[in-house]
Amino acid sequence: MKKNNLTYWSILLILIKWGYAQPYYPFIRHEENKILGKDMGGWRKDLEELKKGERKTLTLLHFGGSHVQAGVWSHVFFSNLISEEKLSVKGYIFFPYSTMKSNHPVYVNTYSNGRWKKCRSIIKDFCEPLGPMGVSAYTADSVAILQMALNKKESLMKNFKVLYLRHHLHGNTKIVCTYPDHAKVKYDSLSARISFQESADSVEIKIINPDSFSVYRVFYAQFLNPDTDGVIFGAMGANGASSESMLRVKHLSRFMEELKPDWLIVSYGVNDVQGKNYNPEDFYRHYDTLLARLNSKGSSKVLMMGITDNYIRKKGHNRRTLSGSNVLKKLSADRHYWYWPLFDVMGGPKSIQKWYKAGLAKRDRIHLNSKGYQLLAHLMTEAFFRKLNENRP
């Protein structure tokens, strides 16, 4: 019996290809699982140039809220891309979320001691300046420790030769690498580059604020293998972030010019439509402005995500999600970006309840669980490669 426009067996074979065999979920609309927009010949060209050595780096950044901060959705999609195209990983970008006592992307582990003050773009924890993910953290302690390591279970990198820190030093702050030994440390008030004689899979740095005027603030970190031609990836998520809150990041365009993303995946929207003051016209304007800042040079290829179906706490199904998804679909067409109709793929209105009953979403019916995010990533992979290869000889 045929189910939707794809047979059960074709779907199963696609998922098995990426090592993910799952039961068939009848609420998922496989006929909607496609990337909207013109052909992705430019994306394919980037990949072929990387494979042929005509470019050294391809940078892929996925921006969003809590769906992205944990990195499961983002990293499974990234892993599928690396596997399918047989690419190397050049680096990972991340925020050391241990400074905020929060969860970090699955591909890294971080630890910090000392007293750190968190700053976020949302009103509750707002302070400035903020980094490109809409967060930062600072400490004025005389001594603080930051430990950062690859998560060996999830990371596609085995080791790295360089740790890059984007930060702000105020006063006489000093940075010392306490592990590995014999590291070469270069830093100024804006950044630090710590190079290692031998490849490492973890690093520890000591931050020394020798007087009451000294403060250390971190914006983001990066593990890097400079001599490797490959993909630099970052799950640029922050819990609670919305398109409106991200507009409070004053220097976002400057950060983006430093990061130089070739591909941008943008997944804000849930927190926008959760707001009781949601207005479609405002949402369009906020998101449009944010996209202009994320793609400040106009050189990035942008894939916009629809909004996951969700509930409003203590009020039931969020009817604003359909409106928000329609806004994003229109905006993507207006700006000639690509769009994945995630709301429709999930099953449309009230589908989050079905995901919850199927063991794919958390009890709040806002967030998915690890299993749900993995399924989301594989559905996205299926749609992405179908679009990427549709006009390939």
H/I helix tally: 12
Task: Give the CATH superfamily of the largest domain.
Answer: SGNH hydrolase
What sort of overall outline do the alpha carbons produce when their principal axes are compared?
A: globular
Strands, count: 18
Uncertain segments: 1-10
Biggest sheet features: 12 strands, mixed
Q: What is the annotated CATH architecture of the largest domain?
A: 3-Layer(aba) Sandwich
Distance between the termini: 32 Å
Helix content: 25-40%
Count of spatially separate domains: 2
The chain-level mean pLDDT equals 94
What's the SSE blueprint?
Layout: H1 8-17, H2 41-51, E1 57-64, H3 66-69, H4 72-85, E2 89-94, E3 108-112, E4 117-120, E5 135-139, E6 143-150, E7 160-170, E8 174-179, E9 184-187, E10 191-200, E11 202-208, E12 215-224, E13 230-237, H5 243-246, H6 252-259, E14 263-267, H7 270-274, H8 280-294, E15 301-305, E16 311-312, E17 316-317, H9 320-334, E18 338-340, H10 342-346, H11 351-357, H12 370-388
Parallel strand pairs: 1-13, 1-14, 2-13, 14-15, 15-18
Antiparallel strand pairs: 2-12, 3-6, 4-5, 5-12, 6-11, 7-10, 7-12, 8-11, 9-10, 16-17
Helix pairs in contact: 4-12, 8-9
Brief overview:
The protein is an alpha/beta fold. It is built from 12 helices and 18 strands.
